[in-house]
Design a protein that fits this description.
The chain is α+β, with helices and mostly antiparallel strands. The protein has a single domain, classed as 2-Layer Sandwich (lpxc deacetylase, domain 1). The chain contains six helices and 20 strands. The chain has helices spanning 108-116, 139-148, 205-212, 221-234, 264-277, 295-307; strands spanning 32-36, 40-45, 52-59, 66-71, 77-81, 87-90, 93-97, 103-105, 122-126, 150-156, 160-162, 166-170, 173-178, 183-189, 197-202, 218-220, 248-251, 254-255, 284-291, 312-314. The strands form five sheets. Strands 11, 12, 13, 14, 15, 19 and 20 form a seven-stranded mixed beta sheet that branches. A five-stranded mixed beta sheet has the order 2-3-9-4-5, with helices on one face. A hairpin with a 2-residue loop joins β12 (166-170) and β13. α1 (108-116) crosses α2, α1 (108-116) crosses α5 and α5 (264-277) runs parallel beside α6 (295-307).
């Protein structure tokens, strides 16, 4: 087995301090569905499988939603809608499984970028099980979406608006959503040896690209090595593609190489949350408050919300 982390931190490209808005002020609440103006492609290894994947994200018709289409080695194709009911619990990621058993994993960063950029309909074709992790951030997906452009479609855009608060809790972890006229996230995270971290802001294209998209997947190096060994011994794909090029490694009270953005870990938890909420299938209008949240709690909130239709309405 190769060394789990390189001994020298690779150079990380600088993040632009300011990203100009791509949308006029009036587009903050678009009334119509939208898709991409053109297709774009990305490729790279997955965080858990370590295997290279080629991905093509293309425009789709109004009402199609986000659809993952996996190309299998035997020539067959399997479609998996990006909806909460297809979600399957997998370690340290968000995964979807089709009705015929085909898995697509680590979809949360792309889903967050599409959601923040108000892309309602897209076809995501992939030739492997897992989407690329890149540098652990959502920046490559955002760049692809920006380059492709956004086109409004001749169909109304229906959003899920809260009528009353909904909340879930798992021990010290809590997650709630309350009525608001736009999607807003307030997140808190406390890690050992770090002061408490907080981030609050709206989820719009400019704020997402500047404040959340640069944040990377993270983890403590002392836990990564045992998980890699577990993956090797069991054959289960967990963190096989994790290294200091694809994740922010934490040692003691520091992030190796420094944080890209202030309080980077809590911002990444907010990024993942936006991607997981996108599996609702409609834009969410609500103020989400998160304390120590993760994928399991995110999906618990979505499931509870969908099980309580009196708590929301489509507008």
């Amino acid at each position: 087995m190769s060394a789990p982390f390189p001994t020298i931190l690779p150079e990380i490209p600088p993040i632009l301090p300011e990203i100009p808005p791509i949308l006029p002020e009036a587009w903050a609440r678009p009334a119509r569905q939208a898709t991409l103006g053109a297709a774009f492609e990305r490729a790279g290894p997955g965080l858990h499988t370590g295997r290279r994947a080629n991905v093509r994200v293309s425009p789709a018709a109004a009402g199609a939603g986000i659809l993952f289409r996996r190309q299998l080695k035997d020539g067959r194709r399997a479609d998996v809608p990006a909806l909460w009911r297809y979600r399957e619990s997998q370690p340290l990621c968000t995964a979807l499984r089709s009705s015929d058993g085909i898995l697509v994993r680590t979809v949360e960063h792309l889903m967050a970028a599409l959601s923040a950029h108000r892309i309602d309909n897209a076809l995501v074709e992939i030739d492997a099980e897992e989407l690329p992790i890149f540098d652990g951030s959502a920046l490559p997906w955002c760049a692809g979406i920006r380059g492709a452009g956004r086109i409004e479609q001749d169909a109304p855009r229906r959003s899920l608006r809260l009528r009353r608060p909904v909340a879930v809790r798992m021990g010290e972890r809590s997650l709630s959503v309350e009525p608001c006229d736009h999607l807003r996230v307030s997140a808190h995270l406390a890690l050992a040896h770090f002061p408490g971290m907080d981030w609050t802001g709206p989820v719009d294209p400019e704020t997402f690209d500047r404040a959340l998209a640069p944040s990377r997947s993270f983890g403590r190096l002392k836990w990564a090595v045992p998980l890699k060994l577990y993956s090797f011994l069991t054959g289960k794909p967990v963190l096989r593609g994790a290294n200091l090029r694809t994740t922010a490694g934490i040692v003691g009270s520091r992030v190796v190489g420094g944080m890209r953005v202030p309080d980077e870990p809590v911002r990444h938890r907010a990024l993942d949350l936006v991607g997981d909420l996108a599996l609702i299938g409609h834009p969410l209008l609500g103020h989400v408050r998160a304390a120590h949240t993760g994928h399991e709690l995110n999906h618990a909130l979505v499931a509870k919300l969908m099980a309580e239709p009196d708590a929301w309405e489509l507008v």
